[in-house]
Amino acid sequence: MKLSYWSLLVPAVLMGCQAKDNTVPTADTVQITEGLSIVTSNCGSCHNVGTAGDSPRVDAPPLRTVLANYNVESLADDFREHIHVGHPDMPDFDFGPKGTDAVIVYLKSIQEKP
């Protein structure tokens, strides 16, 4: 299944908007937006990166469910240390420290309740 343009655009636009009281977006909001951008370009060809829908690759879980199977801190450490995460044919990624933090904040923001 192909990612819906709206499923990616609407959350990104909403996260980037100022609040009604004209406050500046929080660090978490900025990281969520950056994390969405990173996972869309690096993970979206196999995983669903949004809050609904199926992954393009049947055996790739939607990212909204991955923290049910991984300890979030261990996953972050694995990404930071370039330890292979996932199945054997999943590529290794180097998001850098800030990129890894943004990905983790984004993943936390979209997780389904068990």
SSE arrangement:
Layout: H1 5-16, H2 27-42, H3 72-80, H4 96-110
Helix pairs in contact: 1-2, 2-4, 3-4
Description:
The chain is mainly alpha-helical. The protein is 46% helix and 0% strand. The protein has four helices and no strands. It has helices spanning 5-16, 27-42, 72-80, 96-110. The longest helix is centred in the first third of the chain and has 16 residues, at 27-42.
How helix-rich are the residues, as a percent range?
Answer: 40-55%
Describe the main β-sheet briefly.
none
Low-confidence stretches: none
- Name the average pLDDT: 84
Q: Give the beta-strand count.
A: 0
What's the end-to-end separation, in Å?
Answer: 24 Å
Global Rg: 14 Å
Give the strand content.
Answer: under 5%
Structure class: mainly alpha
Number of distinct helices:
4
Secondary-structure element series = HHHH
Globally, the shape reads globular
Summary of the model, kept short:
With about 110 residues, this protein is mostly helical. The protein has helices spanning about 5-15, 25-40, 70-80, 95-110.
